[in-house]
Amino acid sequence: MDSRQDRIGIRATRSRRGRAIAGVLALLTLGACGSLHNPPPKDPDDLADYKAANDPYEPLNRKMYNVQMWAYHVALRPVAKAWIWAVPKPVRHSISNINETWREPAVFFSDVGAGKPRRAGDSFMRFTINMSAGVAGFFDVASLVGYKQHETDPGMTMGTWGVKSGPYLFIPFVGPSNFRDGIGYGIGQALTPINYVPRGYGLLTFNWAYNILGTVDGFANSVDQIDHLEQDSLDPYSYVRSAWQQNRQSQIDAMTNDHRATTPDWYN
Question: Keywords in UniProt for this one (predicted)?
Fold first, then answer.
């Protein structure tokens, strides 16, 4: 879940890329308090579970999770439901396409950093095609000609380098993360061109709209999943943590093992 809303002008636009890092530092500072940190248990079985969860800051993380869920029920869910009701699905798809397209430069540089030329080529072509034929990203033309969207970010790249994840963190309105991916999130923001729009010609207004609508659309796409999670899970926090960690490691493993040729599938 993304938190890239810019509300205070061009200075906030430029500083947004540091929010995740600031959030990590704030969590670390708060985590120094004993009540917000779980010390390792002495029982061998409990210790094994403790290490598997990789969540020594669980008391703090649960507080942050509760903050986000409070905001979700009070404001985000009603707004997301209204968004689904009021905005036709094709328009919502176009907004999702815009968000994916404008993130492609960060995907491209992450792929390059991981030494994956085929993935980097796909992300470069997606950005080029969708920004032109796709009308600044409103339409995903690139997928129609063989360049499918894929997820890569600086945190994944650092994972392929062998950088350890560090403890699990839950950052409100960013979602599940860890020390490595929190830093990667900040780097990804620095690699996203929309964060550098200048004043004038309505571009700053477009940037606000892009971030706000992208955030609302992201929650709208997740409403059903979140509702089912809260209804069906005895401990939604633990479920989210486990599912995210497994999925994150699966993404890194898939990227590490991606040894495809540099030519796209449709060319062969």
Answer: Lipoprotein, Signal
The alpha carbon of residue 87 and the mean position of all alpha carbons in its chain are separated, in whole angstroms, by 23
Q: What is the model's pTM?
A: 0.79
**DSSP structure string for the chain:** -------S-HHHHHHGGGHHHHHHHHHHHHHTSGGG-PPPPSSHHHHHHHHHHT-TTHHHHHHHHHHHHHHIIIIIHHHHHHHHHHS-HHHHHHHHHHHHHHHHHHHHHHHHHTT-HHHHHHHHHHHHHHHHTTTTTTS-HHHHTT-------HHHHHHHTT----SEEEETTTEEEEHHHHHHHHHHHHT-GGGGPPSSTTHHHHHHHHHHHHHHHHHHHHHHHHHHHHHH-S-HHHHHHHHHHHHHHHHHHHHHT----SS-GGG-
Angle made by CA atoms 99, 164, 257, in degrees to the nearest 5: 65
Residue 204 to residue 207: CA distance in whole angstroms: 5
Q: How far apart are CA 184 and CA 110, in angstroms?
A: 10
Which phi and psi angles does 177 have, rounded to 5°?
A: -160, -170
The two three-digit tokens of residue 109, written as one number:
């540089």
